[in-house]
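INFO  loader      accepted 1 record
INFO  loader      residues=131
INFO  predictor   begin
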Amino acid sequence: MSPALPRTVRAVDTAQLLDLAQEAARYGFSQRLPVDWLQEHLAAEATHYLFPTLVQRLTHRPEVPLQWRCQQLLTVGTGEQIWGLLDVLPGTFDELPETLDTAAEKDIVSRIERAVTVREWVERMAADAGS
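INFO  predictor   done
INFO  writer      dumping tokens
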């Protein structure tokens, strides 16, 4: 039986997010951004948010543990918030402290829904740098 997908948002700082990305890389999870990319682009003192939306089980790769696919709201060095995905172990997610009230969680989910994707942001930054 799979652990129940929590309907909550967790806030993490940049160091915690980098740790989560490193763990995802160790397990070979498919939804993650490279740690070096995150180190380069995330605002160092920012808070980022994770919202689990899918139980991910790779039946074709039984050695890979079950994970929760989380939508993430990342704050980059420009101050913008962008949307990405990160696969996280359920136990790791459960260890993150729950610090947000219901109103804050609803606000963050709404901001996730309106945020540009990592890809859109990267493309825009590249276009801006080329002009």
